[in-house]
Amino acid sequence: MADIQLPSQKLIPSLGLGTWYMGENKSQRQQEVAALRFGIEYGAKLIDTAEMYGEGEAELITGEAMRGYRDNIYLVSKFYPHHAGRKQVIAACERSLRRLNTDHLDLYLLHWRGSVPFAETLEALYQLREQGKIIDYGVSNLDLDDMQEWCDEDHLGLTATNQVLYNLKHREADYALKPFMDSKQVSLMAYCPLDQGHLLQHPVLSQLAERHNATTAQIALAWLLAQQGVIAIPKSTHEERVKANLDAANLTLSHQDLQLLEEAFPMPSNARGGRLQMR
């Protein structure tokens, strides 16, 4: 799996495991732990989670799944916007570290914009970085105006990523947000990379899947991995799907394949409609 270089010169894997909706049903806990552990043992190097997911339960599940493997994992978590004040960010990070059973996060993200000024949030992130409790920092769900403001306030210029809704069906970020992020060397972490399964019956994806002896999900993920500076974090609690998702890293789409997808899923003419709030 290819790595992407961040402004800090650190590397982030371009494909990992998501945990959205994990920790919400106790009866599924062991299946969720097992799916993450399987993914880690199969070669996944990145896990994305958040204090919001299951109100901390997804972080506990991630911590359990990572046991014995932490040194191999690029670990991402996110904090609520109502925890974005200087003291609150630091306290939220400490809670996440305890739940994840680790002494640091590789990447820590503001989950979406709230009422706290970006400058205050950044000061807390700088402090956590100086203390070694986080390695890199970034944001999630910021549109172009917010992203520009955030980057203006980031005097270190080390924002690593903006995690947004991005897939073949939802390419709103391509209109203006992603070009701006590319100019700042800020990666795009794509959540819902399979559009929660809604993409997978599209006839063009089926055609390419047959051509490559692959699944439609693998084609959709391979398209994402072919985009500059994009990280995909598909989530599944089924081991066979986890394996298939990770195997998408071995699939190379031809120029002809990419052109076919471009025609079937053209870039939108505006940036509206591309956000799932509070994800």
UniProtKB/TrEMBL annotation:
<protein>
    <submittedName>
        <fullName>Aldo/keto reductase</fullName>
    </submittedName>
</protein>
<dbReference type="InterPro" id="IPR036812">
    <property type="entry name" value="NAD(P)_OxRdtase_dom_sf"/>
</dbReference>
<feature type="domain" description="NADP-dependent oxidoreductase">
    <location>
        <begin position="15"/>
        <end position="263"/>
    </location>
</feature>
<dbReference type="InterPro" id="IPR023210">
    <property type="entry name" value="NADP_OxRdtase_dom"/>
</dbReference>
<dbReference type="Pfam" id="PF00248">
    <property type="entry name" value="Aldo_ket_red"/>
</dbReference>
<dbReference type="InterPro" id="IPR020471">
    <property type="entry name" value="AKR"/>
</dbReference>
